[in-house]
Amino acid sequence: MDFIRSMISRDLKTGKYDGRVVTRFPPEPNGFLHIGHAKSICLNFGLAAEHAGGICHLRLDDTNPDTEKAEFVEAMKRDIRWLGFDWEEHLYHASDYFEQLYRYALVLVDKGLAYVDSSTEEEIRERRGSVTTPGINSPYRDRSREENRDLFQRMRAGEFPDGSHVLRAKIDMAHRNMIMRDPLLYRIRHSHHYRQGDDWPIYPMYDFAHCLSDSVERITHSLCTLEFENNREIYDWLLVHVDAPVPRPEQTEFAPLVLDYVITSKRKLKELVRTGHMRGWDDPRMPTLAGLRRRGVTPEAIRKLCDMVGVARTQSRVDFGKFEFAVRDDLNRRAPRAFCVLDPLKVVLTNYPAGREEIFSAPRMPGDAAGSGTRELPFGREIRIDREDFAEEPPPGFHRLVPGGEVRLKYACTIRCDTVVKDEAGRVTELRCSFDPATRGGLAPQGRRVRGIIHWLKADRAVRAEVRLIDRMFAVPEPPSDDIVGALNPDSERIVASALVEPGVAGTPPGTHYQFERHGYFFSDPVDSGEDRLVFNRTVTMRDSWGARLRRRSPGIDGPRASDPERPDGDDGGTIRRPLSPEETLASDEERRRFRDLRSLGVSAAAAASLVRSPTAMELFEAARARYPEGVASIAAWLVNDFTRLLGSDDRTDAARLEPVAFADLVRAVDSEDLSHRQGRTVLAALLTRGGSLEEARAAADLAEIDDEGTLRDMLEGLVEEFPDKAAAFRDGRTGLLGFFVGQVMRRTRGKADPRAVSRLAEGILSAPGD
RNA sequence: UGGCCCGUCGUCUAAUGGCAGGACACCGGUCUUUGGAACCGGGGGUGGUGGUUCGACUCCACCCGGGCCAACCA
Length: 771
What we know:
Layout: H1 3-14, E1 22-25, H2 35-50, E2 55-60, H3 70-83, E3 91-93, H4 98-110, E4 114-117, H5 121-127, H6 145-157, E5 166-169, E6 184-188, E7 202-204, H7 206-216, E8 221-225, H8 232-241, E9 250-254, H9 266-274, H10 289-295, H11 299-309, H12 320-334, E10 337-338, E11 340-341, E12 344-349, E13 357-363, E14 374-380, E15 382-386, E16 406-409, E17 414-422, E18 428-435, E19 453-454, E20 456-458, E21 463-470, H13 484-487, E22 493-501, E23 513-516, E24 520-524, E25 535-541, H14 545-553, H15 589-601, H16 605-613, H17 615-627, H18 632-647, H19 660-671, H20 677-690, H21 694-700, H22 709-722, H23 724-731, H24 737-748, H25 755-767
Parallel strand pairs: 1-2, 2-3, 8-9, 10-23, 12-18, 16-19, 21-25
Antiparallel strand pairs: 4-5, 5-6, 6-7, 11-22, 12-15, 13-14, 15-20, 16-17, 17-18, 21-22, 23-24, 24-25
The protein binds one RNA strand through helix 5, strand 6, helix 7, helix 12 and strand 19.
């Protein structure tokens, strides 16, 4: 279960959203959906489907009139449906909320939390400062509410030209989060909106429109990719300050899908289409859903990939092999088999009568796939095989056709190569072979084991087809963002104008999957293929252990593969540096002075360094020390190791509740073994959440402890009986399993057992020889 | 010289403080009329250093490494 699903389960349990799960997929209709969007679609729609009453909205985030088109909306709808998801009646447009958004903006203006800035774009940029220097206030920042309202209303009325004013939130120009430095809320844009026409001369910015659209739609979980992390702060700020209804939607970020050899920047994909490097958004080499579909990738495969990749916050790159696996895994089950000869080499069977034809039959699907039926393969004196299935000088391990050698023609018979015919240039033009009638129809006489099995086609019955050998879009796993074009794989599409396919393939309708045996999975092009012209796109090659072996032997023959063990981008490990001592990590002389004071009191170096850095902890330390002077070292250790954690973060509000006296008493109780360390932690948690004295917290916390040896022994012996294999493994040296047994006891006693006693007993019981 | 986020097999991803597991890739084997598929087996991991704890991938500190943020884009 991923962290988002865990969070939703938690929310469901606590009733945070009254049991509602409402997600949304919010693309901007300025291009085509790609494989990266697929992850988000699977997540958002998947989440809705997994929960009773769950809903996922499709919202077109159309707040930028200059880039958006109805055509893209239609394409997106088609692609989402194709992927297998349905928004039912929940189709929305951010532009439908323009009026509502405008009113929210007026709320901010009237609260004095938004102002009209009449600076130029450059001025605004300059005054924003940098990540290390604060920004400076705009001269227009202190306009009166009345003036702001008037100006903003006139912006809306269309009185001003583009760029003359913007509406900004009034937050803090020195904020450490750049996004919070008075973010722009509205800009003036006299553009035609594909949906709203010319009704609006002002358009809301993403940060303003997005959270409010979520709120308007009563979204519960607003999921987006990691790059919006910094935007979460403004998301929450706006909802609070416009008094959006509670419970409010919450933004959670997850890692985007990044695939080796692929880019998912809509801007760059658009550029490749515009410049003609790609024939269109649906070019089979494109990572767009339209391109993948045309290439023959199935929705099931894409969903499978998303499934395998999972959802996490870790910045990740997915091996291209994982994509290929997902595609093959699906196509293997659904694609009927056929023969295809890409690079024909003439083969004459000298002992087969000219003019005669016989028919071999072959299964449409391998094995005994029920009801898949058979196909017919005509056979005769003159056939064609793939040129790469013959080698005059075979590399070691090659087991296809060689001079004087034998191969099996799949589903037909074995042949022996007697003569190699070449032209003046030395190129092989024909093989003269003899066939073995005893092997006809696939019979295999005893003791005759032929290693190589190749596909073939009868020359005069083969059908011509155009085959497009699609390969990875880029030549390198991580195309540099500053030179996308230079990184393109020059062999991303090799067109074989006259390949040959078996007769049964003739008349294949567009949009049909095949496995061309030993070559890979192919898909009849939905656009270019038709009655009179067969065009196939290669969806993916077969898994190719022979090719992999050759590449290993001579790397560079086919460029690096994502799945190769050695990637070209090596890390040099970085410089090894001597670790700093705790004292050396201190910034100022003052800190170092206090550090030495603490050390002289007997506080450990690590604890002292941490204490010195935290004023809150230091204050508590001093107060607690007054109560329990002999316990300085323990107090410091508790403060550093447990107190910070229970606080959860830098939020020090809980700290106020902690009575230094109670805290000191607690440390003393543990030091004197009046409480175990474990119990001490429980009590500290109680002290932090409810305050009060040590006695009160002790009473509130359930501290009953099981340390009765007989009870614990019984439990442990029961466990040894229950898990004899684990007990045996422990005796064989897997000492880590001690933790398993201790853990089981702790779990079954709901944490009430004394772990030290359990551990000691368990060791004795487990070490005793079993019976 | 900032803030926020993130570091688990080669890759992706799990593990209320208690057995470091799964998938892809890789290697080996069985079987096979696809150098395919299926099945079986194998190697391989918690960025580092300290600390807390009976016990740390998990908590604390520091270090190292990576990502994001200074569009009137989203």
